[in-house]
Structure formats: structure tokens, C-alpha cells
Fold each of these.
Amino acid sequence: METMKALAITAMSIPADPPRPAGTVLAAACAGDLAAFDTLMRQYERLVLVTALRLTGSLPDAQDISQEVFLKLYRNLRKVEDSGLASWLYRVTVNACHDQRRRRRPESPVEFAALVPSTDLDPQQTLTQAERRRVLELSLRMLPDKERAAFVLRDLEGLPTEEVARILGSSEVTVRSQISKARVKIKDFVERYFRRRT
Amino acid sequence: MNPENWEDILREAHNEPIDPAHYTAVRARVVSRVGLLACPNRAKPGRFFRHLAWISAAVALLLTLALHRSGTPPQPPRITLAIPAAPPAPITRPRPAHLARALRPHREPLTIKLQTSDPNIVIYWIAD
């Protein structure tokens, strides 16, 4: 039994692929350093969780998806390029959100409890913040999946259209069209929302 | 809030900070799963028992083969079908030729009469 365990540990410590260039967190995580992988997660956790939250509209779902994405990253550490890691994470997150939405129709109600109200704001500011959040959630919710993903990546995350197209696996023309449609719909929705409120 | 600035409204809402506890929860879940992935025996406890079963079966097979080879050589199959022996031939003394001829029963010789187209010619064939 001890021999088997020793063999298993030896096999785990020998990298199957040629070693990556050292000096990066990704390389350290690749070599089996769990602390480096934790650092990697801290670097990209906002990117993954917030993108998933915008695409699903639910914090528990976004957390599940984040977990899934980081586990996938752990399994594919040797395949992921250091320079393209953010794009890879965006792509995997978007795909995981699509899969999750396909599995879970009809949609669950939108949750607004994800964000923490700042304690140093007065009640009026807090209300405004909550309202802003509500407008964002409802605006995104009324968009079709592809338009929502394009809008979140381009207008909210601020990625260039070319990269958004690469992440979504579409052409730049398609992405521009989707963003344009999404903007028109959101603008119309926000105007109607505030008009009804006043 | 001015709806004219809808892009700013959405961007500000998007950039609002998220409670760090949500990130911590995700990291904790991932780290616990990664720990299981890194240790194959812990990740799948059934795998150890499966390996143990395979090893036991292999050892049992090897032992059986070894015991079988080290023992006495196998006996050849026995023939269970018995062929009955022929009954003993009666022992008789040979008789003298003249006596045997005398004891032989008298038989009429075989006579075949062949008639030809000529009524005056008849052929007899007598076999003894």
C-alpha cells in the first residue's frame, strides 16, 4: 500500500508535458503549486464571477459557474497560454452560462442581493445604488443570450469588438450588430423605466 | 438619475464592488475540489477498493496456476469401454485326408445342360 502511494506521488510530481517558462503565476500553478493557483483565482475571480452574474442574473448560479470555470482552468493549466488567459476565462464563462441557461429553463427570478450596499452612503444614495442595480439587471434580462453576452463583454467589461468576436466565436460584423441592437433595446427600456417612475 | 446617461448608469452599476465573501466562498469550493483532484485516492475512494479487488484476483489466479503446475502430472484418461475377448477356439485334432473324404456327405454333381440351335447337339457341363 505504501509502495502504491509512493508511486502515485512520484507519478504526480513528474510533469507529463515539457516545463513551461518559470517566473509566472501560471507556470507555478502548472507545476502543482496550489498557492499559485489560489493567486491566479484571486486575479481573475472578479472577471469570472461578475461576467457570470451579468449573464445569468443570479448570484448562486454565478458562483456555481465560477467554480466550474476555475476547476476547468485547473484541469487545463498546461494548455492555457499566459497571454490569452483572460480571453480563455471569458470564453469558458460565457459557454458555461449558455449551458446553464439551457439546462435551467424557465428562468429563475432575478436576484438583486448580490451586491453589498456601501455602509458609508446615506439612504438616498443607497436607494439610487439599488435602483441602478435593478435597471442593469432588468435591462440585461430582456436581451436575448447572444446580444446580452456581446453587450456585457463590449460595453460593460470594455473589451474591444475584435476580442469579443473571438470570445463569442462570431464575426466582428455580427458582434457590432448584436451590440447595436442591444443598445437600442436598453436605451428604450431605461427611458421607459424612468418615465413610468416619474 | 438621468435616463439620458443610461450607459453611465449601467456601467456604474456593473462596477459596484461585490461582497468579498462571495469570492471567498467560490475560492474555498474550488480549492476543496482541487485538493480532491490532486489526491486520486481521496478523490475516488472506490478506486482503491477496485484496485485491491483486481490485485487480489490476479494473485489468486497466479497461485492457482502455480499450484497446478507444481503438483503431480495429470493421469491419462482411462478407457472405460471394455472390448470383450474372443471366445477360445475349440481344440480339435486334424483328421486324416482319407477319413475326412469318407466322412464328407455325398452330393450330386452340378450338371448344366446347354442346348444349341442344332437339336442333334447337346452340351453337358458337369461341375464337381
Note: Chain A touches chain B through 44 residues (CB under 8 Å).
Amino acid sequence: MSLWWNRRRVEAGVLGELSAEAEQKLFAHLRTCAACRAHYDTLSMGMDALSTSARDGRERARVLRPAVPGASPSTSRPVFVIPIAVALAATVLVVVNLRPAANDDDITLRGGAEEDGGRADVALLAYARRGDGPVRLAADFPLGGGSVARDERVQFFVRHAWPAAHVTVVGVGPDGTSRTLAEADVGASADRSSAVGVPLDVSSLAAGRWKLEATLVGGGSAPVVVRGTLELKP
Amino acid sequence: LEKRYVGSGANGQRAQRFVFFAGHLHTPPREGEMAPVTPSTAARFAAGDRAAFEEVYTAHASLVRGWVRRFFTSAFEREEAVQEVWLHVSRSASAYQVNRGPLRPWLRVLTANRCRELLRQRGSARLETPAGDETEAWLDANEGPDASAQRTRLRAALSAFAERLSADEAEVLRLGWLDELPLDEVARRMKRSHRQVKYLRLKVVTRAAEDQTLLALLRESEP
């Protein structure tokens, strides 16, 4: 059934006809849908048989996307972004230093060598909204975690001072499964806050404690990672 | 790119159209790819320079792709894993020390570790991968003269495949894949609408995905 609905989108994805954002949405769907993934894999084999250069080009665009500010259209703002922006303007956000840059003497290849970049001006905000109800600030990382209910939609915002950045928010669920929750290219804005992707429907996520990690990559700076936990109430 | 014409005859048009497929698609890595990066580039890469990261990516993209292919069978998983690996490389760049050795083995370890992590996270059954010193030989096993012979066979199969396409499909294949023209330009040259060209492209890909000879050769080149 899912393939029936998503067939065109899968085919467009294989043919490289989707925007970066639409492609990431498709990938998020493929992670959870075996039928669509099988269709994607089959067509990808056909593409690879013809030429690998199209696939390689798409890969290059995905990997290097943050290196070309403005090359990728900014994320379309969801309907409730305007009230959120108003809420943001009224919210005093305290920005704290992140973990200082590593100064390793040895190369540590097994998980210990990730670089936070020592940036002091990045925060990840999670706003939640139930139906058409009011928007509330659910969490402000790295200051503190929060909680959301499974019938709420969650919108991530990143607060930064970069001209442009590629942001990925990855969550590790209570069962240890990780998934990309939001991803987008963001640019500078007046209040330095940018929406990361579109509002996330969390009803399909497992209830419990989610570890979140937002990574900002861009503009010649070392990547910055912001971490926190978000409780997903049953 | 060799665009050779082979005369005419009863099937002259078709022969004219397809002769160059045999020599172009599935070429070895292009110039700049797989070339070692200079120590200064490596140093800038470690310092977080974005341009240096691009150089490192260009030089090693095809290697990393090949290594990732050893771990995952699904095209989607591979695409995701490659992206994850490069994100991991970008994050870990500051941990690379130029005086400790070249980038390639460092990238190989990072790739192998990240792929294993991803497999573990997904609870994948395909975890029987060599560990330690054996990893290097296992990851590089698909490099060598066999790869060149496989490419040659694949090109021949592609020529045969192209012969079986309709004229429109073949034209889309030529303009879209061989000449790598954007959709707009393909549509303009073929005097067709975008929608028609998209449909033709999908037909060509679907037919390629159903071509058992092509698929068998493609699988042959898999680890």
C-alpha cells in the first residue's frame, strides 16, 4: 500500500529529480518501508547498470552540500513557523559554551575523536504543538532536555551565527535504534534561529528517552555537535 | 568521449547511434579521483578547511564507495552509509595527524568502523566481516585487473542493451546518460515535454533493471 502511494516519489528519487529536502524525506520513509526500499534498490540497480555517474553526482551533492552556501534552497517553513518566530523573539535563549575542541595527542578512531569544534554560539531548540494548540518550548539544548507527548508535533530550530550550515538531528531511541529526525540547510536569519526541516510527527517513534545529537556543518568551520535528551511520553 | 560513426545500411542509423556506448559508460575514475592529496591539503583538512575536505572527498569518494559496498547489499543502505561515513570523516577530521601517515588507511579504518556501527545499530545479520589486520585486504579485494575486465564486459552488455531500446528510449539514454545533459536540454533537443522525457527515462531505467545480463554483470562486480 505504501509503495502504491510512494512509487512516483521513489522513482523520482532514483532518477535524481528530487530536491535535497525531498530526498531526505524520501530516505526517512525508506528507512521504515521495506516495499519502497526494495523498489528503490531495484531501480538503483538499473541506474547503476547504465551509468554510475548520476549516482556519484547525487552523492557528491549530498556530501558537499554544506560547502556551497545558498546552493540548496532553504527549507520551506511550516505553517506554524510564524507563531514560533514570534515566540522565539519573546524567548530569551541562553547560549552556552559547548564542549571545547578536542586536543588529542593520539588518533582515536573508535568513537572518541569526534570534533565539537569549540563553538560557543549554537543551540538546538525543540518546540512542540498539539493540533492547532499553542506552541511551547519543549527543550533547549545544550541547556536542558524536556519532554513531548506522542500526539504532538515537534519542530527543531537551530540557533547559530553562521552564514549557512547543514544541520542534521539524529535521535537514538530507547531501544538503541538511531534515525535521522530532521535535516536541512539553514541560512542566517535576523534572530539567528532557523527551522530544521518540517514539523516531525512523533507518533510513530518509540516512547521513552531519546538521545538527540544535532550536527552543524558549514562554511569552513569545524562541525559543531549539540547533544541532549528528550523524553517521549507514551 | 569517442563519437565514431560507422556508416549506414539497413541498420545504419541504429549502429551510428550506439557505437559510442561501448566506450564511455562505466569508465574508470576520472582525473583527480583516487590521487593522493598533498600534505598541505591533508593539514588543511585536519584544520577543518572546507575546500580541503572537498579535495579529500574528490580524491577518495570512489574508494570509500567501494569499501562501503563490502558491508551493505542494498543500494539505499549504501547511499546512506556513504553519507554517514563522510559526515563521520568531517567530524573526525581534527583527529587526523599528518605526521602519522597518509589519509587513505585512516579513512579506511573510519569507514570500516562506521559501517560496522551502522550494521550493529540496524541489527543486521551481515556482520561476519574480518577484523583487525584482515580488514585492509578484505576491503581492497575488489581493486585490481578483474575490475577492468568486468567494466569491459559491462560496456559490451550495455551496447547490446541499447540496441534493444526503441528510438526514443535510445535517444534519452544517449542524451541523458552519455552526454549527461540536464532534463531541460534533453526535452528541448527531443522536442518533447518534460513529462514525456521523465517517462522515457524511467522506462529505460526499468528496462535496465530487468535486463538479466546487465544485472548479472553488475552483481559479478559486487563483493
Note: The longest helix of chain B spans residues 50-69.
